[in-house]
Amino acid sequence: PLNVTVNCTEASHRCSIRWQPPRTSHVKKSSCFKYEIVIEKKADAEKNTKSTSKPVTIIENNFYLYESFHSEKSYSVKIRATDAGFCLVSPNWGEWSTPVGFGAQQLTSTSSYVLLVIPGLAAGLTLFLCMTVRAYLKKTSATIPQPRDPLPGPSPMDFQTEDMNLLENQATEEIINIEE
What we know:
By secondary structure, the protein is α+β, with helices and mostly antiparallel strands. The chain has a domain at 2-103: Immunoglobulins (Immunoglobulin-like). 30% of the residues lie in helices and 26% in strands. It has a 4-stranded antiparallel β-sheet with strand order 4-3-6-7, with no helix packed on it. A hairpin with a 4-residue loop joins strand 1 and strand 2.
């Protein structure tokens, strides 16, 4: 079997173990195989315990739920495959997969915690760098002087007032012309 993965949750004391069927040149169905799993509790030198293996019964699919998980203990799992009886695969058991360790330090809750912390730290670092670069650029860049008004003081001609006076004069002339 290939790509053996183990995902454990401390709260439920369960581990889901998944794998892919072995590669063969002529078998394309995963239902062509049956599997044997061995889960081993690792020895603990502090508590004077020995390693113990627990063979699991034959499994017909590529998924197994291990329900005796304790987060403070270390385990390893290995899997091997053989013909399920109808796919013309060798009836002999294949090689054991590479043992996959789990428990003691590896918990799904820890992994999800790390998945939340790392992006948070990255965002904080990015914000810090942006603020630092902004402050540096503000200190080192030259200030651009603002243009000054070339004619300080009041304008010699107030066009708006002049236009209003012109309109008033025209209205007055029209009224006079109407009266005449």
